Amino acid sequence: MKIIAIGDNVVDLYPADKKMFLGGHAANTAAFATMMGLDSAYLGTFGNDARGDFARRTLIELGVDLSHSLQYDGPNAFTTMKITTGKRHQIVGEPVQELQLSRDDIAYINTFDLVYLNNESGADAFLSAITAPTIYDFSTIDDDRIFKKIAPQIDLAYLSGKAKSDDDVEALCRRLAAAGCQRVVCSRGLRGSAALVADMMSWQQALGVKAVDALGAGDAYITCFAATLYSSQKPTLDAKVSESLSHAAKFASAQVQLPGSFGHGAALIA
Questions:
Q1: Which of left, alpha, beta for 7 (phi over 0: left; psi -120 to 50: alpha)?
Q2: Residue 195 has pLDDT above 90, yes or no
Q3: What region holds the Carbohydrate kinase PfkB domain (predicted)?
């Protein structure tokens, strides 16, 4: 299976630890796919500064194909992680550069088995040209206007619903399904996860692990869930969904025990 992730990469700075780690939903997804033993590519933009070099080098060392990514003249996107009263805050230091896709890029994207996009990818305008099965990360978006625009063009929708009750999660998933996407998955942190596939609601308990850093957990979850669902050899759709929920919970639980989104840190470049 070949997966391509389109959109953001962000270098996360941890001043208190004097470390930095690569993050960003799309970059994380490409990295997690390679960790699962899959062929993966990342299509996005990198700055030509030292942080951009770190971001590129990290993905290359993991085996991610960057052949269609671009480097621009300027600083790479980054955020600074600060802890106040026991809570982590992300302070945007440099935003992600706008992404433009060429005809060659679209043709390349359509050679993959799965395509990952998110609400920060800047690639919504290109959705209609993508024919490969598409995963779309809505994150915490809860807006029927956006659902109706995006849902009919995608194959699998991902949501984050940590603070929502079971009833609220099911209602949210069903609204997105009604908008046009029949496969919806929602991760909920310590409250587990849920999936609505072909009008069938399924639930998965969270695994009891001690988290070192929850950054990137959702990206790990959707990468594993999607890869498992689309490659599963289970005889029924119900069994495929159950397998996908279980594998995704285990994979995400392993990632939260690493610093940053997936480890592979370096000395802080302030």
A1: left
A2: yes
A3: 16-119, 157-260
**Domain residue spans of the chain:** 1-263
- By C-alpha distance, which of 223, 248, 254 is closest to 32? 223
4-56 pLDDT per residue, tens: 999 999 999 999 899 999 999 999 999 999 999 999 999 999 999 999 999 99
**CATH superfamily name and code, 1-263:** Ribokinase (3.40.1190.20)
- Kindly report, residue by residue over 88-107, the tens digit of the pLDDT: 667 777 788 888 899 999 99
Q: Rounded CA gap, 221 and 251, in Å?
A: 7
Structure token pair of residue 158: 């991902």
Q: Cα separation of 45 and 241, whole Å? A: 34
User: Tokens 């079971």 belong to which residue?
Assistant: 166
Q: Would you call 87 helix, strand, or coil by DSSP?
A: strand
What count of Cα atoms within 13 Å lies in the side-chain half-sphere of residue 85?
0
CA angle 95, 173, 156 (to 5 degrees): 65
Q: How many other C-beta atoms can be found within 10 angstroms of the C-beta atom of residue 36?
A: 17
Provide the token pair at 18. 């004097």
